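Kindly draft a polypeptide, keeping tokens residue-aligned:

***
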Amino acid sequence: MRDERDRTRQENAQLIEDELSKMKMEVAQASSELQMKFTSKSLITSEQKVLEDAKELAQLRAEKSVMTSQLEVLKRESVQMEDHMRIILEKHNKQMSIQQLQNMQTFRAYRQVHEDFKVELENRWRNLLDEAIQDAVFLSARNTELKERNAQLSYDLGKIKDDKSLKRGAQAIGM
């Protein structure tokens, strides 16, 4: 697009330059013709004024042609620039939409990974808590079991000691 605009700008500049050259030649020719008409006659001041006005009128007409060409060139450039700006804006909007969709897709994927990780972590903690509760129940039952066994062993030991004491007492009396 930029190359096309540059090429158009160069073509338009050349066109305006050609129009200016053409205008200068037309003004010079018109001035020469007017000068020749009035030089053959003896001019008085008012006729000189008319001659100058006629020259100025010829120059203004030629300038009008150049200005019209310049205006047309600028209008074409303006239309071309508007078209290019519209195309650029459409491309930009399309790219922004694509970028937004990619960002949303990335965010959704991140959110899904985060949710999966959260569920996995929660399950891991629940399993760990279940195992800890099972261990606590097992250890509590085992502790009760061991206390009962310890009590039984203490009772048995006390009985053995009592039996031994009775035997020593009986031996001491029987001796």
Observations:
- The chain has one domain: 2-174.
- Helices lie at 2-39, 45-174.
- The chain has a mean pLDDT of 86.
- Residues 2-174 form one domain.
